[in-house]
Write a structure and sequence with these properties.
Structural class: alpha/beta
Number of helices: 9
Number of domains: 1
Shape: globular
CATH architecture: 3-Layer(aba) Sandwich
Bound molecules: adenosine-5'-triphosphate
Oligomer: single chain
Strand content: 15-25%
Radius of gyration: 16 Å
Largest sheet: 6 strands, parallel
Length: about 190
């Protein structure tokens, strides 16, 4: 099977994530997409997070109607911090029959050379990159570009940080969130 891996903190999951996941699934390059819920990513160690359990619940609610998506909590069981290279090598060894692609946005491509052991990572997976207008990847090294497949995508301008900001400043970001996720946040009084 061809499996796409899409990692993040999803704090909370929002409509931009749903939209990019749909684009990856529609690309024809993967059979399934696994969402890797990260405990605390190396570059966000100094930020507070809603609990892993709440973020996992919100992911299940967000993707329950979309076929071929699985929510993976594998990173919770692996040593921290959760470097992608560690997760991907673990999965490649556990599922030797499957072929993995890392799913990222074009904005992340320019930073890819800063990821831990990115060359080793590319030995285990391809890169599926969702296009984003006005993003420049002309400086990306050819070793990386050899492993890249671009897929069409219409970006939805939203981030988890923006949603947190709106909640804490008394605004209502309901339209940026799947309905069930919004209800869950309200019910559990998150991001207040
Ligand atoms: P933060 O604001 O905390 O950085 P985020 O909204 O970027 O959060 P993450 O959980 O960090 O959410 O993102 C998971 C993945 O989703 C990352 O690869 C990120 O590039 C991608 N992503 C985030 N927002 C969007 C969006 N609006 N459209 C497409 N991809 C997105």
């Amino acid at each position: 099977m061809r499996i796409g891996l899409f990692g993040g903190t999803f704090d909370p999951v929002h409509n931009g994530h749903i939209s990019i996941v749909r684009s990856f699934l529609q690309s024809g390059y993967i059979d399934e997409l696994w969402i890797l819920l990260t405990p605390v990513p190396p570059h966000k160690l100094n930020k507070e997070h809603v609990s892993y359990e709440h973020r996992k619940e919100m992911l299940h609610l967000a993707f329950q109607d979309i076929d071929r998506v699985r929510i993976s909590t594998i990173e919770q069981t692996l040593p921290k911090p959760s470097y992608t290279v560690q997760t991907v090598t673990h999965l490649a060894q556990k599922y030797p029959e499957d072929e993995f692609s890392l799913c990222i946005g074009e904005d992340s491509l320019a930073q890819f050379h800063t990821w831990k052991d990115y060359r080793k990572l590319l030995e285990y997976c391809h890169l599926l990159v969702a296009e984003r207008p006005e993003t420049d990847h002309s400086e990306v090294e050819s070793q990386i570009m050899k492993r890249v497949q671009f897929i069409p995508h219409e970006p939805v301008e939203v981030s988890s940080t923006e949603i947190q900001r709106q909640f804490s400043s008394g605004k209502d970001p309901q339209l940026l969130l799947p309905d069930r996720v919004y209800s869950y946040i309200k019910e559990h009084k998150l991001y207040q």
